[in-house]
Design a protein that fits this description.
300 residues, alpha/beta, Rossmann fold, eight-stranded mixed β-sheet, 10 helices, globular, disordered N terminus
């Protein structure tokens, strides 16, 4: 192709755009502020459409295990949560040919409900031989609405303490499920990472292994209760969450908790989520392989 017919090289997206999206996604700025900031950096090639298509999730990209995969069986389950919102509904996935009982893993979504990415994570776990359950914190309001903006607003409107009680109820339910071997793991992302840390501190005798992806720790006064080994997955460019790590690590050491922390270089908050421009395929696969190995070691 002649030089004058070559396609223009796409303008790289500035790092601050990802930071603004993180602020927006976590409620630190509103949508108007987020869009105004993006407008200030648009160019002829770096259009608003390009920015939004990179920053916002495209869940068609997030399917690694199809729900019709013959190796898994997926359904929905509802359970009581008297101390929470009354009941919990979630996505339950098991290996299709389950030889008796198996270790169980609770999968905890981000701050926007049970979106397709998190459901796919549950299917990946079942594909690897675990029974997985992914509750939807938005069930009291009708469930994940189909888009993240509305999902975030819905989750913010719910009582945070009751949401936590719903996940505690789900964890206890899963551990005692008829398919459970009695070994319970938990993996969560962002808000879900916090929930994993919280479960480790609040139900230490129930949780056998936890993998928080870029999640903040439980309240300081609760950390002394943690017993389960933890695999802490952090992103180098995630300043907000990483700022909480030194104190958390100090408390884990002081209380003799077995933990491993991996800091993934040049990665952004959400790097495991393969539906957004923050996705880092190489490090996401490495982190996931470490997650499966960790659960295999401590649950199987």
């Amino acid at each position: 192709m002649p030089l004058d017919q070559e396609k223009p090289i796409a303008h790289p997206i500035p790092e601050e755009a990802f930071d603004w999206y993180d602020e927006y996604a976590h409620g630190f700025i509103d949508r108007r502020t987020f869009m105004a900031r993006l407008s200030a950096i648009t160019t002829a090639t770096l259009t608003m459409g390009v920015l939004l298509s990179t920053l916002m999730p495209d869940y068609a990209l997030a399917e690694q295990v199809n729900f019709n995969d013959p190796d898994i069986k997926a359904t929905y389950l509802t359970l009581p949560s008297p101390a929470g919102h009354g009941e919990v509904r979630g996505y339950f996935v098991e290996p299709h040919k389950l030889p008796g009982k198996a270790p169980v893993v609770l999968v905890v979504h981000e701050n926007r409900g049970l979106n397709p990415y998190i459901k796919d994570v549950a299917r990946r776990l079942a594909k690897a031989g675990f029974v997985a359950f992914a509750p939807d914190a938005l069930h009291p309001l009708g469930g994940y609405p189909g888009n993240d903006d509305e999902g975030r607003a819905m989750q913010r409107s719910l009582d945070r303490t009751k949401i936590e009680m719903d996940f505690i109820a789900a964890a206890k339910f899963l551990k005692s499920h008829e398919l459970s071997s009695g070994k319970l793991g938990a993996v969560g992302f962002c808000f879900g990472g916090y929930i994993v840390n919280m479960l480790a501190a609040v139900i230490p005798d129930a949780l056998d292994a936890g993998v928080p992806f870029y999640g903040t720790p439980a309240a300081k006064e609760l950390r002394k209760n943690i017993k389960a080994p933890l695999l802490v997955q952090l992103a180098e460019l995630d300043k907000r969450v990483n700022a909480t790590w030194p104190e958390y690590e100090s408390d884990l050491k002081a209380n003799g908790v077995s933990y491993t922390m991996h800091m993934y270089p040049s990665c952004k908050h959400g790097f495991h989520n393969d539906s957004t421009g923050r996705y880092d395929e190489k490090n996401a696969e490495l982190a996931w392989n470490r997650t499966i190995d960790f659960f295999t070691k401590h649950l199987v």
